[in-house]
């Protein structure tokens, strides 16, 4: 079953859109988390020492990127899978061209030495 070109292009556009959105979240989420921790916008961040604040904010930012990646993988796995079936005429032409004799192959210097 071969899908129409317009449908395949719409699917490709949807995949690119999802990739772009996931990429944006991979940049925005950790930066927002780091900004929130450093400007005391997140609850509990005022009670942390500067060293602990750096560690916790970095750890949470890394975790947020991993969550975005996991969500993107989940969305990619939900994409419809269409088995591509090659054109039968193309297959017949390819098989015919492979089975045709092409003439004598050029001989290498090693094969000439072996004959002597």
UniProtKB/TrEMBL annotation:
Residue spans crossing the bilayer: 20-37, 52-74
Pfam families for the chain: VMA21 (PF09446)
GO-annotated cellular components: endoplasmic reticulum membrane; endoplasmic reticulum-Golgi intermediate compartment membrane; ER to Golgi transport vesicle membrane
Biological process terms in GO annotation: vacuolar proton-transporting V-type ATPase complex assembly
Organism superkingdom: Eukaryota
Keyword Endoplasmic reticulum recorded: yes
Region of interest: Disordered: 95-116
Annotated keywords: Cytoplasmic vesicle, Endoplasmic reticulum, Membrane, Transmembrane, Transmembrane helix
Localization per Swiss-Prot or TrEMBL: Endoplasmic reticulum membrane; Endoplasmic reticulum-Golgi intermediate compartment membrane; Cytoplasmic vesicle, COPII-coated vesicle membrane
Membrane topology value: Multi-pass membrane protein
Biased composition range(s): Polar residues: 97-110
PANTHER family for this protein: VACUOLAR ATPASE ASSEMBLY INTEGRAL MEMBRANE PROTEIN VMA21
Function: Required for the assembly of the V0 complex of the vacuolar ATPase (V-ATPase) in the endoplasmic reticulum.
Family listed: Belongs to the VMA21 family.
Listed name of the protein: Vacuolar ATPase assembly integral membrane protein VMA21 homolog
Originating organism: Gossypium raimondii (Peruvian cotton)
């Amino acid at each position: 079953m071969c899908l129409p070109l317009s449908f395949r292009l719409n699917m490709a556009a949807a995949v690119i859109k999802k990739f772009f959105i996931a990429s944006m979240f991979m940049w925005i989420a950790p930066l927002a988390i780091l900004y929130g921790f450093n400007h005391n916008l997140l609850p509990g961040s005022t009670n942390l020492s500067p060293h602990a604040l750096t560690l916790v904010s970095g750890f949470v930012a890394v975790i947020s990127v991993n969550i975005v990646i996991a969500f993107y993988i989940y969305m990619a796995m939900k994409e419809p899978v269409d088995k591509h079936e090659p054109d039968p005429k193309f297959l017949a032409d390819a098989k015919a061209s492979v089975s045709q004799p092409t003439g004598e192959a050029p001989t290498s210097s090693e094969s000439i030495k072996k004959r002597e």
